[in-house]
TrEMBL record:
Keywords from the named record: FAD, Flavoprotein, Oxidoreductase
Organism: Cladocopium goreaui
Superkingdom per UniProt: Eukaryota
GO molecular function terms attached to this record: oxidoreductase activity
Enzyme Commission code(s) on record: 1.4.3.-
Listed name of the protein: Amine oxidase
């Protein structure tokens, strides 16, 4: 069948937060700049916007099945830019609990201990060594090297490590040691409290989408893009039975999608394949109020499949528990098996569970994993290599995997969208 063709000045591929922030930013540039209005379209595979920001119903409770935490409120760009206000936020810990452990006031299954001090010093030693390390080494390797001087990891340190693994979405033997270096480490956050959104991530997606559409964005839903190529002075975006042409394009599809489709967009293969999508998944349980009241906000879990429990009840009054799994293997569990394992672990009776939802992000074809991490196979400049490859051309890349400092978080995706908008804007001015 002949492909139907449509032309725009700019096409953004992917309607997650990177695509939406790119759209808003670009439309604002053009609304106030000298070039006058341009046509901008966003092409999204799903029938909804938001991507891995995904609020869904678990029984009668709305839950975030993708991102949930605002990782640090001080200086966070989504707050600074006014997309999230203080009234939207409920702090869940006074600081990054995965990295720094609980503060006095945090509701957590373990309290600060003397061994935490050793843990912090151990991490500092690992960080210092990381700056001189070669690729191919893991956080586990770095920690093992501290043992001859600092002794084996104490019990409290092991609990901290497990929480940390929960943040990175992978076990310490996969987390890249380079990730740990203070200067180059890329799993960034912001200082201050970590928080969840009272209204869920849905409100953030709605705000961005409404503003983009108010400014004139054309949204095309339900179109799977198969390939993006630059041909002479234009970009062609091929869908199954439709072809879009544009002067500029921004590709915001996930790292997992790019990795699984080598012909989607020409990018340097080795850096692309060395970065890794983790398998952080959630078993979301809508439980009875009395069951929810039994748990603190954070509980570290030691089980084959589950790493931590997060309880919304003390924060938002929603009787909702979220258990995290980190392995690709856990995605093979059936809903019943996952539920059974969780009930056993938390000693929950079946009648206390009203509804459940188990995510398997590795099997979602438009995501192919949860979020990107520089795992032990990655090298310093892998993310930069992806950006450099698109520096000169008319196709730009954005998405959480393209932000060197904050890779993995939705604030990274947001910032990367703004960066790509700036690049397109400058390119547009240069040829205008
Ligand atoms: C379980 C889970 C928990 C998380 N927790 C947190 C957290 O607490 N805090 C935090 O900061 N971050 C968290 N994250 C990460 C965060 O969700 C992501 O960093 C962010 O949402 C990524 O946004 P994005 O726009 O880069 O990508 P996406 O949200 O993946 O958007 C890309 C869009 O492109 C579309 N697309 C893909 N392929 C095609 C194609 N071929 N054609 C057309 N469209 C296509 C997709 O449908 C999608 O809508 C979590 C993620 C997961 C999965």
């Amino acid at each position: 069948m002949v492909e139907a063709e449509e032309s725009y000045d700019v096409i953004i591929i992917g309607g997650g937060i990177a695509g939406l922030s790119c759209a808003v930013s670009l439309l604002r540039h053009f609304a106030t700049g000298p070039s006058g209005p341009v046509s901008i379209a966003l092409v999204e595979w799903q029938e909804r916007l938001g991507g891995r920001l995904y609020s869904c119903k678990v029984g009668d409770v709305e839950a975030d099945a993708g991102a949930a935490w605002v990782h640090g409120v001080d200086g966070n760009p989504l707050i600074e830019d006014g997309w999230i206000g203080p009234e939207d936020l409920v702090p869940s810990s006074a600081q990054n609990i995965w990295l720094h452990g609980p503060a006095e006031t945090d509701s957590c299954s373990f309290k600060a201990s003397e061994e935490d001090e050793t843990w912090e010093r151990r991490l500092a030693v690992v960080g210092a060594a990381a700056s001189m390390a070669q690729g191919g080494r893991s956080l586990q390797d770095g920690l093992l090297e501290t043992e001859p001087i600092m002794g084996p990891l104490a019990h409290a340190e092991r609990r901290r490590l497990r929480m940390l693994e929960g943040w990175f979405g992978m076990s310490a033997d996969r987390i890249g040691l380079l990730e740990w270096d203070g200067e180059h480490g890329s799993m960034g956050d912001y200082p201050g409290a970590h928080a969840v959104l009272k209204g869920g991530m849905r409100i953030l997606v709605e705000r961005l989408a409404n503003e983009a559409q108010r400014l004139g964005l054309k949204v095309v839903l339900g179109q799977e893009v198969c390939a993006v190529e630059e041909v002479r002075d234009e970009v062609r975006i091929h869908c199954h039975q439709r072809c879009f042409r544009a002067q500029w394009a921004v590709v915001t599809v996930s790292l997992g999608v790019l990795q699984s489709r080598p012909s989607f967009l020409q990018l340097p293969e080795k850096p692309l394949q060395r970065l890794e999508m983790c398998h952080y998944n959630k078993l979301l349980l809508n439980v009875s109020e009395s069951a929810a009241a039994r748990f603190p906000v954070f509980t570290d879990l030691v089980s084959h499949h589950f790493w931590q429990l997060f309880n919304y009840w003390p924060l938002t009054g929603k009787p909702l528990l979220s258990l995290a799994t980190l392995s690709a293997e856990a995605e093979k569990l059936t809903d019943e098996e996952a539920l059974e394992a969780a009930c056993g672990l938390l000693t929950l009776a079946k009648h206390e569970i009203r509804a459940s939802h188990f995510t398997r992000w590795g099997r979602v074809p438009w995501a192919c994993g949860s979020y990107s991490v520089s795992s032990k196979d990655a090298e310093w400049d892998d993310i930069r290599a992806l950006l450099l490859a698109t520096e000169e051309g008319r196709i730009k890349v954005a998405g959480e995997h393209t932000h060197e400092e904050h890779q993995g978080g939705f604030h990274a995706a947001y910032l990367s969208g703004k960066r790509a908008a700036q690049e397109v804007w400058e390119g547009f001015q240069a040829v205008a």
